[in-house]
Amino acid sequence: MVGSVKQDVEVDGRRLRLSNLDKVLYPATGFTKGDALAYFAAVASALVPLAAGRPATRKRWPDGVGTATDPAKPFFVKNLEAGAPDWVRRGTIEHRSGANTYPVVDDLATLTWLVQLATLEVHVPQWRFGPDGSPAHPDRMVLDLDPGEGAGLAECAEVARLLRPVLEGMGLDAVPVTSGSKGLHLFARLDGGWSSDQVTDVAHELARSLEADHPDLVVSDMKKAQRHGKVLLDWSQNRAAKTTLVPYSLRGTLEPHASAPRRWEELDEPGFAQLTPDEVVGRLERDGDLAAALAPADARGDALTRYRSMRDAARTPEPVPAARPAKGDDDVFVIQEHHASRLHWDLRFERDGVLVSWALPKGVPRPGERNHLAVHTEDHPLEYATFAGDIPEGEYGGGHVDIWDSGTYTAEKFRPDEVIATMRGGAGGGLGGEPVRIALIRTDRREREEPGTPIQGEQWLIHRMAPADDATPEEETRQQQAQKKEPEHELRPMLATAGAPLDPDAEYGVEMKWDGVRAIARVEDGRVVLTSRNDLDLTPTYPELQALADHVHAGSAVLDGEIVAEDARGRPSFSRLQQRMGLTKPRDVEAARRAVAVRYLLFDVLAVDGRDVRRATWHDRRDLLERLVEPGDGVDVPPVVATAEGDDQRAAVDDAMAISRRLGLEGVVLKRADGPYRAGRSGDWVKRKHERQQEVVVGGWRPGHGRREGGVGSLLLGVHEGGRLRYVGRVGTGFSDRDLDAIAAALHPLERKTPALEDVPRADAGDAHWVTPTLVGEVRFAEWTDDGRLRQASWRGLRPDKRAADVVREP
Predict the structure, then answer these.
(1) For 774-794, how does the pLDDT look when each residue is reduced to its tens digit (9 = 90+)?
(2) Which of 513, 671, 687, 802 is catalytic?
(3) In CATH, what is the architecture of 135-242?
(4) Which of 5, 305, 355, 360 qualifies as a cystine partner to 345, CB 3.0-4.6 A?
């Protein structure tokens, strides 16, 4: 019988009876109450600290959210439900109409009890109850970006990007959080020095200022009549009486989605969208809690649990405190020289009552020296800042420890993936008594053992920066770039020009053109980081390519190549590769990996052991590459198929094209033998293809008919020419059902009322749905017409590895 499933469970030592576990709460997908309970249990380690200490207002859907034709209305509940367990923490607020007693979600047991009552949304204010039970000053600010009709999530992301530098200028590090519905929230941690009224006034002024600067995009007035095509910057949720959905909560939308913190770079990605519960859980398992900085330290429990589990106080002289000390001033640092099984240095910063720690195998870089590896380790107690001595052999970290330098530090940034700090050590310390400014940048994206905790061995980079007072604007720009990538190497790949003329007096090497995804590989300390043409991190998508590290005969290298998937006849198949593209959740990646294997075909080298070789000729770089990389385990260096020079140039190219056609490949690339490696498109590399292909920007879609009724029938396409996004035709063939599902999902959050494409004929625009032009695809076609349209275009696939701004017409 539907709704009959019951289960007695123990949660955090509390006994609970869960009922109606098979009751469907989201009819569109069959998502049940049991699914909701499982989701909240999976995210509780991140959600509870963000809700703890705050009165929780709930939205309950006892009969589910309903359907599009018959949506259900929720119960909006403030007062604690009758019959609530006596162990549920309570908080009372005096309103004009009387007092309300609220539950406080301080643990998983309380959260589970609320979800058992069909609570899908948990809303809390930006303040917590103080010691006397009254509202304290807010400890965070929130800006709610709510798209009006004709705007969407893409416009919200644009507003968020405008707000970020303003908030940083105020000393606030904002965390973007997709709301799970239509919009985006920006949260920023506060120090508790402002009242709710003061925070509200600041947020209101910020909204009015942005509206004045961007009147076509932003509105700060709540009236819906003024919001068409714009984003409401809702500042009012900072009022003491207002609440905001807590990050990681479900939403009562027709299909299940959840609020989720996002990385800033995601806001620039094509197809940026709201996330499903499974996606949120997968991200939390893989990346940890991206909103951890928003939760007060005392809401996150004891950060020294891992430290204690690795040490026995009876066996080691290291400090092993039974309780975590009170928070200090966050200004102490220490660097310890540690003669363990391998000599290394331990860098530790006081933060929220512990020493956040990294192991530095090569120490702190000297001025002008390249980045060093930094390995994130467990938090240490504050007492460790003065520890020196011998850890017994056989104990964790056994060996001699000396204090190399110690003192105070100031932090410009202290985020889960980036730290910028200036250290001031002692006169006789290893830093030489001068202020030393460093940046720590997380590069590791592996799945974590526990959400919100570092992996043992999680990899970062440490970069030596110029002191803030000495850095010129140019130096600051260079250092900001260095925080994201190796300082010596700009990772933009060199691109070939279609159909460019060859220099008849030059020699060219001829290589096959591979139909895949371009990827730059950084290899260092046994780790491979893969980056796409548009700076997407491809590392989690192709975990098997970590094998590259075992095939490079150097300590470090920066390499260029193409990731391909092969069909049954061993030919690169772009359609097969699409089954791997864009996946990051470990479970999805592993399933796709079993079905579709990939190879990494290398054709250039940018650096070896920190030495930049991009100025060397292609001929010399090619020779170096063949000596540097040993093929195997899906890694290969395909041969140069011909040399084209002098009178034999044309014949060599024709022969290579014939070989390429016979092998079923895409064409060839001719590379000038005496040319250097230049980022961006260059005439030194020339591509010749058997069929014409064109990257395109999707600017809209038209509804389908027949089998495609109710879905996407064709896409309206554009390319950039002379600063305009010009319409070049539509494509309605070449789609698989999987393609159409993926495209529809990607287009939905990009909807807008007006076209971004220019010169769209009335016949094509009549029933068109317009979207913000960020999605990139690729088509094959017969020719360009006289009026600049694609003739006989056929869809090849989405290109998440390409930027919309880079899409131009190719000859």
Answers:
(1) 999 999 887 888 788 998 888
(2) 513
(3) 2-Layer Sandwich (3.30)
(4) 360
